[in-house]
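Minutes, structural biology subgroup

Action item carried over from last meeting: produce the structure token record for Amidase (Ramlibacter cellulosilyticus). EB confirmed the sequence was re-checked against the source entry. Recorded below for completeness.
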Amino acid sequence: MPRPDLHSTRERIRQGHATAADALQAARAAAEAPENAHVFVSTRWDAALAEAQRTAPGTPLDGLPVSIKDLFDFEGEATRAGSVALKDAPVAKSDAVAIARLRAAGGVVVGRTNMTEFAFSGVGINPHYGTPANPADPKTPRIPGGSSSGAAVSVATGAAFIGMGSDTGGSIRIPAALCGIVGFKNTARLTPLQGAYPLSSTLDTVCAMTRSVRDAVLAHEILAGRQVARSDKPLSGYRLAIARTQMQDHLDATVARAFERTLSRLAHAGAKITEVALTQIQDLGTIQSTGGFTAAESYAWHRRLLEQQGSRYDPRVRLRIERGANMKAWEYVELHQARTAWIAEVESALAGYDAVLSPTVPMVAPAIADVAPGAERDEAFFRTNALLLRNTSVVNMLDGCALSLPCHAPDELPVGLMAWHGAMRDDTILNLSLQIEHLLSSASPN
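Output recorded by EB:
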């Protein structure tokens, strides 16, 4: 049975059938279960309970538990971004803007969640604080996806209703897809970055994971400080594109089956689905051949810390950051220019379409043992990381928005469907995703 989402829990509270304290007690039990080892790097349950009891009734989040990625400042606590290189970091003097907005809306922070060191990987491995196990498979410990690994597991297991994270190349949508929950990456400019450790100032997006699309809408409205324009347009009113180039390459059997089954249901519901070439995706390799934004911009931030604490970095993360040392100023300027031109080409190719549909990632979650720290597994790790980021990172380069929602059958490992488009189509993507979620939840899995 799916866990209750924030909306249904809030309704029970407002009807007098439950309290925020009940929700916090259940969240604490989930967080402290043995299978949730490595999900949180710190917790504050007693303080959270006191805050929940002081929360004014009728606030949007009603004192319900939220988790925050160890990337965000939280007043009185040190932000370590999943790294021991920042073990002596000073405590924050104020909340990150996004966290302040959640708290003002009645969200109660229960703890800081584990993550890939400095948010630089889609796999979710952390050699310093351990790796949270994906809750989808109790028999085989599988990766949760990254970099917002603990955030995803906290939401999937009931330890939080909203998992605050970030998305630079897929760090919200990848773990959402692999853990079977919802992850929405909004247009980057809509949510404030202040108080979050940067990875790429060009691509970073502050956003969240939830258990339902309607919860994703609410979380986005709070974080962005805006109202989503709602639409009751049926699926038959949407014109959807399927990208032929790259997005469907090398899908494993479970992902391919779930994706095709979902497309069939959408078509049967009347959605107008057209396959488009979108060959511009192939150009990204050439555009980023000198290293890309993430390497260059992360190196600019980490350069001095690497000189002082480089030996304490995860070697896989350090290797990727140090690639940015070789980018020349003129290459960085040309990269921005090439991206602007590329965005215009993709926008032109997608003119007339409401959204593009693709598998969020081309695989189900592999076993942690296959990509765990160790030089003998580095090749498998980097191959897996590249595949996980392949589809999602296209949206970041597009300066776009995207939502991943589960589309697998009950007897399958989680698979994510990604609905996406360019900048400022957030409301269309959210409204479409509400329709898709309703269809999939009401349809027979066969």
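Discussion: The chain has two domains: 6-286+323-442, 292-322.
Next step: EB to file the record with the rest of the batch.
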